[in-house]
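== Folding task for one protein ==

=== Format: two labelled lines per protein ===

==== Paired sequence and structure tokens ====
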Amino acid sequence: MTPERGRVLSLDLGEVRVGLALSDELRITAQPAGVLVRVGSRSMLREIANLVAEHGVSAVVVGYPLHLSGEEGERARDAREIARRLRESLAVPVELWDERMSTAEAERTLIAGGVRRERRRKVVDSIAAVLILQSWLAAHSEDGLQSEG
């Protein structure tokens, strides 16, 4: 069970990069927090633990990329394994969150905003993490409605 207050860190796990987003303390807004280059799982887990400590994170949400059918593929199994390892190494709750289409939605948003392809490649993972976190925040808000932000 996740605490009701405190910052939440979300992860969009890509094969090369991990997009990051952080909520505010009141869990109203989600902001991009950059990317981690996925070199090795141990170093990635260590960097995530450092972010949790540095930003006073009280929960971690890991994007869970199920197939449209709801079945688990290789990327979803990878996310489940990373979440398991984070649960073992962090003192905060770690939750998987359905992220079907978040990267595609982030890409469409950036294209609609006129962001050039080279810049999109650099920020799409972080924007996908924001979309994952916004979805999680909306589902966990007291009134079930997502605040503007």
